Fold this protein.
Amino acid sequence: MDLNDKHWRTWTLRFLALLAADLPEQQAWLGERRLTVHTAVEEAEFACSIAEGLTGRAVFTPGHLRTLQAIARRTSALDATARTTRWADSLAADPAWDDVRTLARGFLHTLPDDRPWPLPRRIPPNPGDC
């Protein structure tokens, strides 16, 4: 696997680790960031695009790609009015996130190395996110 593929695989797995985490951990990681549901939808679509290329290079399997596509479909189906809601607030309010969490966990459990993927490091909010 080349360095570019490794970088994008790691980025995808970190994003999935966030989606797979329990609700309190997700909310803690998102903290006071003002990221919206729309941001989550865009990130899921981006992860799907990355996975398409990585599947073509045998980094992910077609099954992994199907799971990411299901996550992207589920997040895209969130009510249009909820897209401007803070992502952290939407996590507890919309049952769609439970489906996303289950799909992300399933993806991570099918990895060949089967190691746990921690949440991304907590970082201070970017002033542009507020």
The CA atoms of residues 85 and 125 lie 17 Å apart. The mean pLDDT is 84. The longest helix spans residues 37-56. The chain is about 65% helix and 0% strand.
